Fold this sequence. Notes:
The chain is an alpha/beta fold and 260 residues long. Helices cover 48% and strands 16% of the residues.
Amino acid sequence: MEQSLVLEERSGQTSILKLNRPEVMNSLNFGMLRALSEKVNAIQWDPQVRVIIIAGAGEKAFCAGADLKERATLPEEEVRKFIFTLRELFTFVEYMNKPVIAAVNGIALGGGTELALACDIRIASEKATMGLTETRLAIIPGGGGTQRLPRIVGRAKAKELIYTGRRIDAAEALSIGLVNKVVAPEALMDQCLEMAAMICEGGPIAITQAKYAINHGLEVDLRSGLAIESNAYWVTIPTEDRTEGLTAFREKRKPVFKGK
């Protein structure tokens, strides 16, 4: 029986996607890229899922980046195709209509760090190791790392990490803002699920519009960003959920949002 390259579990309104090649540190090959793409594309239109958690199977790795053994067998055109596929997938994850949490449970190097960067929130195990190590292979990050890392940790720190290819531990990742939180390994998934549950307490349409406003607003000047925010806000005004939120506040009870 063929191995499922991406496993899916459900916990309430949260979908947990596990990269499932633990024998090779969950490294990315064409098969895994296709499997992950199929999963996130399907989940985008599933109203039962509010939040996605991406994790790595096993205890050692989130994702060690591209499968270099496969890469060594590919002709140049296939390498270009792989990088394009990788970049498009990570961009989809970043801009899809649901929040995505990276559960960085171990090694996350190269494309593994780039996948985490494309997620909205990163929670790391104390055992996590991260880094964009590509220059040590005479290439550069090709899955968005040169663009997302400086936007998250700042230009100077991103240049240092990319130029040197240095690996950093969880504590340093937290200190530079690369991850949101660091927890004990055994508490990682519980912490991710707790974060997901807190997100699910908000209105579905509001969360979607907040993600849209943040992602698109950061790419433009402030005045344009404020216009994007206004337009995103207008979407929430005629919703049933907004009325329910106000009613629940008045009645001192928890709101029951329906995404309408």
